């Protein structure tokens, strides 16, 4: 559980995670209007709505009764609670704990902010005084105004910094606790950012809370950040948001990159809507903050292997937070390029071309699944099914989870088709089209036609499958009838019947057999067929479940209702069994 010590921290937690309009809409009916929301004031009677909420500012105001403030003020007024009671209510809502500790008084925070601001001004002055440092950063950016915009500075030796801070009346303890110095094993303090280019980091409330710094000479550690503290939390910051806020809000577009210099270089080139995480991880708070500006933020990481790995990690992490309409898109840079180098060597137009060809999150997820296997045996196909099920179930939102399951299953079918190309024995484009759109159905029919032993063993399961394509479903019924007919001919004669009467479809099924199962052992065929039946059965039982839900809601007869609920539970168990691959 997150622990906080002040009203300001509670407020920051709320603003980082939620929109004020979403919270107030639980109590007041609101209507979007431009960049704000409007509704009838809950604090006085009115016919015309004059109660407005600004999500950007995290404030509400009524033009009628003049009530206004932040979420804490709203709770206090609406719930008739004291300030302290309102803080507790909001903390419970956020799932955080308030620590009432005198050690963390407001004055302590004030001094912390003051020392960081003092250092920030001092670092900027020192950048202009140190020729080597200035030339280093100027060669990268070549724009003094942009360097000022981002308050880029240079931290001198620790002795100089400490002497300067002491002259500004900061105590030894305040300096040592600021995160600007590191204590070694000998209990001696040395400068964290000494002889490095500095980049001030602001939280979402635009308070300076820490620094990032880059080495300008040979160093094992290229980048270093302020340590985590009650003030500085990496998961609650996005570098560049303060400077790019207006453009991001105007364009309703945000691009997530890895480093400070990526953001600054892009700004210098006119791309003024990028932000950076302090590392390659992405927290729920950062995701939600970006979603407040754009329903589909872009992610643009380095084009090397490490960057691709980071993309995969972020794509898997964001899955569980997905809700309808919210996602990510991924800009894939050429190998050995990061945004800084690509923008430096190419035009904005060339970057926009790559951005236009960005990949959806769903496709990134599919590629990570597909690239995890090396061959296309039935066992590996089953492994893909297992991964699809696991990843889909990791999505908390049930609607999005179902859509991902369908999408990834469809991608698997296309992938299987592309890697098991059949030789077409017919020039009929219509028939070929049927195969490509209904590959699972066609393979299922191929098993029924050519693997009679399996058809008999799984007769009950087969009877529960119904194919969506009318032509293929009719053919399925014919095959089943041929096996159950008392006067049926055995062996090849049965195949001859279909070869003569359904020649086009027979040829395509025969071709599928030669490419998909001809080299499989009986055991492998059985595994393949069982998994195929599950794949075809799942959408059928899910539809049945939705129909039953409606019948249950409408039913007024207790006996019938009990039967419907029992049937619903059975179907639920079957769906769970299929998705967890428990059927033998």
Task: For the structure shown, list the relevant keywords.
584 residues; DNA Primase, Chain A; DNA primase DNAg catalytic core, N-terminal domain; 5-stranded antiparallel sheet; 4 domains; Dna Topoisomerase Vi A Subunit, Chain: A, domain 2; alpha+beta; 56% helix
Can you describe what's shown?
Helix content is 56%, strand content 11%. With 584 residues, the chain is α+β, with helices and mostly antiparallel strands. The protein is built from 27 helices and 18 strands. α20 packs across α25. The protein has four domains: 2-103, Zinc finger, CHC2-typedomain (DNA Primase, Chain A), CATH 3.90.580.10; 105-232, DNA primase, catalytic core, N-terminal domain (DNA primase DNAg catalytic core, N-terminal domain, Alpha-Beta Complex), CATH 3.90.980.10; 235-370, Dna Topoisomerase Vi A Subunit, Chain: A, domain 2, CATH 3.40.1360; 429-579.
Give the distance, in angstroms, between the N- and C-terminal Cα atoms.
42 Å
| Total strand segments | 18
**Overall tally of structural domains:** 4
Report helical residue fraction: 55-70%
What is the approximate shape?
Answer: globular
- Mean pLDDT over all positions: 84
Q: Report Rg.
A: 32 Å
**Sequence of strands across the biggest β-sheet:** 2-3-4-5-6
Q: In terms of per-residue confidence, which ranges show pLDDT below 50 for 5 or more consecutive residues? A: 421-433, 486-492
What is the number of helical segments per DSSP (H or I, 4+ residues)?
Answer: 27
Q: Look at the helices and sheets and give the structural class.
A: alpha+beta
Strand content: 5-15%
- Main sheet record: 5 strands, antiparallel
């Amino acid at each position: 559980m997150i622990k906080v010590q002040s009203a300001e921290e509670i407020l920051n937690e709320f603003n980082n995670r939620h929109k004020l309009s979403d919270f107030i809409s639980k109590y007041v009916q609101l209507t979007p209007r431009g960049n704000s929301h409007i509704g009838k004031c809950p604090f006085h009677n009115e016919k015309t709505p004059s109660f407005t909420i600004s999500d950007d500012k995290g404030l509400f105001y009524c033009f009628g009764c003049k009530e206004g403030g932040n979420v804490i003020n709203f709770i206090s007024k609406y719930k008739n609670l004291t300030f302290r009671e309102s803080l507790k209510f909001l903390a419970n809502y956020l799932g955080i704990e308030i620590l009432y500790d005198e050690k963390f008084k407001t004055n302590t925070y004030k001094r912390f902010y003051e020392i960081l601001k003092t250092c920030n001004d001092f670092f900027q002055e020192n950048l202009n005084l140190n020729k080597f440092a200035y030339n280093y950063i100027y060669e990268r950016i070549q724009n003094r105004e942009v360097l000022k915009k981002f308050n880029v500075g240079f931290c001198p030796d620790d002795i100089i910094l400490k002497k300067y801070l002491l002259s500004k009346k900061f105590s030894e303890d305040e300096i040592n606790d600021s995160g600007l110095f590191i204590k070694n094993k000998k209990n001696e303090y040395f400068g964290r950012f000494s002889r490095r280019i500095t980049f001030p980091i602001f939280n979402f409330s635009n308070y300076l809370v820490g620094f990032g710094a880059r080495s300008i000479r040979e160093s094992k550690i290229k980048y270093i950040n302020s340590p985590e503290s009650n003030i500085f939390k990496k998961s609650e910051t996005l570098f560049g948001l303060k400077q790019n806020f207006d453009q991001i809000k105007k364009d309703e577009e945000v691009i997530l990159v890895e480093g400070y210099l990526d953001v600054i270089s892009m700004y210098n080139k006119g791309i003024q809507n990028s932000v950076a995480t302090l590392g390659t991880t992405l927290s729920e708070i950062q995701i939600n903050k970006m979603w407040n500006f754009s329903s589909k933020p872009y992610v643009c990481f380095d084009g090397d292997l490490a960057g691709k790995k980071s993309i995969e990690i972020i794509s898997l992490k964001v899955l569980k937070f997905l809700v309808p309409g919210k996602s990510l898109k991924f800009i894939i840079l050429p190998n050995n390029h990061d945004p800084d180098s690509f923008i430096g060597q190419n035009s904005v137009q060339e970057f926009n071309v790559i951005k236009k060809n960005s990949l959806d999150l769903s496709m990134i997820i599919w590629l990570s699944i597909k690239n995890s296997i090396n061959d296309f045996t039935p066992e590996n196909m089953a492994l893909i099914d297992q991964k699809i099920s696991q990843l889909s179930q990791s999505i908390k939102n049930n609607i999005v989870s179902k859509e991902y399951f369908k999408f990834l299953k469809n991608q698997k079918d296309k992938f299987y088709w592309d890697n098991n190309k059949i030789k077409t024995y017919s020039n009929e484009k219509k028939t070929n089209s049927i195969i490509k759109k209904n590959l699972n159905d066609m393979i299922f029919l191929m098993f029924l036609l050519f693997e009679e032993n399996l058809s008999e063993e799984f007769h009950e399961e087969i009877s529960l499958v119904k194919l969506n394509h009318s032509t293929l479903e009719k053919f399925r019924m014919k095959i089943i009838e041929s096996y159950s007919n008392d006067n049926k001919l055995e062996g090849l004669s049965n195949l001859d019947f279909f070869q003569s009467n359904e020649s086009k479809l027979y040829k395509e099924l025969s071709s599928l057999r030669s490419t998909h199962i001809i080299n499989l052992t009986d055991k492998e065929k059985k595994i393949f067929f069982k998994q195929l039946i599950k794949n075809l059965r799942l959408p059928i039982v899910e539809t049945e479940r939705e129909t039953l839900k409606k019948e249950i809601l409408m039913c007024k007869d207790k006996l019938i209702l009990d039967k419907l609920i029992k049937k619903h539970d059975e179907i639920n168990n079957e769906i769970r069994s299929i998705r967890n691959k428990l059927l033998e």
